[in-house]
């Protein structure tokens, strides 16, 4: 077990200094990590072994990328879901989400082992509890969107346990990580608090799970990635040389190399002088292996 530390264990992998870096995903057949800069309206791709980087401009704030099994991504933009094709750099709208709530935007997503996507929405001003939790699946008739829960000011995280039985989601300003049961038909039930972060540890942002069912939570304003055992007890903490830590992904051949996005948003000049590489992509070696990156399944509809 890694001992919690306040000494940074992470190093800078890609000194990009994004305004609001988020949503890393590891694509193993490319040996690359994709992530977004929400406020910078960019998608980034970084190949650690080669030190190569590329980026694409997005038509609006792009909050997350969910890989699709045809090599594209589902991208969350403020008004809905788009297909992003890295070969052409194009964004094609496929589905409107909350068109009746112009103050909301999409925020953070994941894909479970069944090829189902999960994502949340939030009030872009981070005040009203107008956000909801959704799933997206592909069927023979196209994509099917389902709303599962509502009343969030900033949804973050969604992550699914390795066996597909539990979903974790954060309401960041409340400092809470919730846990749901997932039914065989994809319905959610039995919402309860999985963990609560005290303010001095920051606010829970993106979460992911590893192969043993531990939950890894990045902390906004907390400068750490914190790992919780399946019973909700904190088991390890990894310090990142940036205050606003947003999400991590497991990568590398053994899925034990963590890639962590961070943000410059909201930091003072003193904060940036202390951590000048804030907003960059950081990396460290995790003490547990992550799950393979699942993809939105189109093929099951055929």
UniProtKB/TrEMBL annotation:
Pfam families: SGL (PF08450). This is SMP-30/gluconolactonase/LRE family protein. InterPro entries: 6-blade_b-propeller_TolB-like, SGL, SMP-30. Belongs to the SMP-30/CGR1 family. Residues 20-264 form the SMP-30/Gluconolactonase/LRE-like region domain. It comes from the Bacteria.
